[in-house]
Amino acid sequence: xxxxxxxxxxxxxxxxxxxxFFSYFHSSLPLLSSPHPNPNPNFTLHPPNPDFTFIIKxxxxxxxDSLSRCLRSLAAADYLSDRVHLHVHIxxxxxxxxxxxxxxxxxxxxxxxxxxxxxxxxxxxxxxxTANVGLQAQWLEAWxxxxxxxxxxxxxxxxxxSPLYYKFLxxxxxxxxxxxxxxxxxxxxxxxxxxxxxxxxxxxxxxxxDRTRLFLYQLVGTWGQLLFPKPxxxxxLWYDKNKAKGIKPxxxxxxxxxxxxxxxxxxxxxxxxxxxxxxxxxNIYTNFLHERALSVSHRDAGVNYGxxxxxxxxxxxxxxxxxxxxxxxxxxxxxxxxxxFREIFPERVVASLEELGSVLNSVxxxxxxxxxxxxxxxxxxxxxxxxxxxxxxLRNYILIGPESEFLFxxxxxxxxxxxxxxxxxxxxxxELLTVHNSYVQVISEILVKVYVLQKCLESRYSSWVVDxxxxxxxxxxxxxxxxxxxxxxVGTSSELFFARGSSFAEKDVWGTDFxxxxxxxxxxxxxxxxxxxxxxxxxxxxxxKKGVRxxxxxxTSFGLRIDNSNVNQSLGDGKKIVFWPKDMASxxxxxxxxxxGIWVINDDSSCKAVxxxx
Length: 614
Ligand SMILES: *[C@@H]1O[C@H](CO)[C@@H](O)[C@H](O)[C@H]1NC(C)=O
Ligand SMILES: *[C@@H]1O[C@H](CO)[C@@H](O)[C@H](O)[C@H]1NC(C)=O
Ligand SMILES: *[C@@H]1O[C@H](CO)[C@@H](O)[C@H](O)[C@H]1NC(C)=O
Description:
- Helix content is 33%, strand content 16%.
- It has 614 residues and is α/β, with parallel strands linked by helices.
- The protein folds into two domains: 53-337, Spore Coat Polysaccharide Biosynthesis Protein SpsA, Chain A (Alpha-Beta Complex); 346-596, Spore Coat Polysaccharide Biosynthesis Protein SpsA, Chain A (Alpha-Beta Complex).
């Protein structure tokens, strides 16, 4: 028998290769509050990078009064002696037009006005279209970033901005783009409009407490949007690809998808929203209270409004500043919201017992936690599972898996995860094992489950330990919880295990030195047989315990089993889960789930729908 420690080498190598992702995503993990607010920024600071460039992209059409109000407000802002460029994109009227003479005159007046408008902060550039392209092309063609230090602030012509807007945005860029420990590649910009809209159907009311100044929200704001270069470039490429392949930006459950179905390519936001949903990106928003914002839309009659609706908010200016306007809190102090305006918690990675305790407390629901083991499960299958969790409003789960880029990505999208090797290293579990190297994976998987189970029971929470080769299909997929006559349930055909939290209070199930005894048992079982599972070892272990009530759970009594041969099955009434053998090929799994109608992801693994729950 060879000591495991000498065989840790491959595992450590793996850790090192993954370290890149770790530092990339987790430079300030966990996202905990720092007690120091940023010092008052000194706005005469050097530019963050010699290539730093700020361009205003003003999208105009046929509204001279609106345009002149917008330009005047832009020119009245404080630019801190920075060079700031102004690019005006003027759309053409639709041809042919019965009233061409009048339209030509209007266009001339707009061009004359823009030509005569003095812009003393940088270069002024006018892009006058030859035909009507509409808002989608106006936005999308307005910008192709020429470097990672070029930023675009897009305003439509019926906006008016605060004189403070640039100082605010520059400060924001310094704090959330250039400060490496306080920036994330999945933040795509900042909206200066007052947040008002929740696009997910049946989503939460947009409500923030009065102390919140900044927060993150997935939705793009079209009334004064700062765009960061890298995500915008990604979006343009993604749009190109989808457009070329004839893929529509449909996202079920979103109000914006209804708009798209009605007016199609006139608008661009459904495309951007779909992209953001697929990637899991976020936008920074302000909350200045009393309906105030740094950018206000006058909602003049035009493409978006049949008749003028008037300003949507009040302009925030120096005179109305009675709070710490410039304080840019650390990212870890800000709240994050999805398209349902549901708060999510990105980057919740559990790497120690202590962290597990606090994550358990926050994810548990009615003192129940579901652990989902993702070992050996294909990414598409996992994505499909998580979409079902979202649509069933199951939120009390923690994912367990081997360290991978995919798992870190799930964490940053708001799923709580346990990275097995990190966790086991932190609890010193590797010391316990003396087995052959080829079993490291099997043993790691079993051991991490035992640790989390024990911690869970210590906290008096009931827990389900399940594998990714099952799919919940009802709101209460796991039923036996209410039968109090048993402490544990072990599944017969899948890796399903249940432990009742209250049992632990009544009796000492584990005894002293539980983990090392359990590890010894794992080792001795492994010597005798090649393949063992957590449920199997647990059942063996519990057999030796007096007074512990274990029951067998027949999954077929409440679940549908699928396999290689049964085609075109139907769910039938009362089925709560669908499950399949662990070694079933993932393309067959996908096929079977499609037949039943429970394959709910797109080819790029994103959920087909956003499902909000109030
Ligand atoms: C801000 O920077 C300028 C130029 O470097 C300097 O003169 C000024 O004292 C600084 N102000 C503060 C409040 O630090
Ligand atoms: C960068 O962000 C961190 C975390 O929020 C903060 O503690 C630090 O002061 C910031 N650095 C600068 C130069 O502002
Ligand atoms: C399964 O259903 C599909 C679609 O309804 C059908 O085309 C196919 O023939 C069915 N297969 C079997 C074996 O019944």
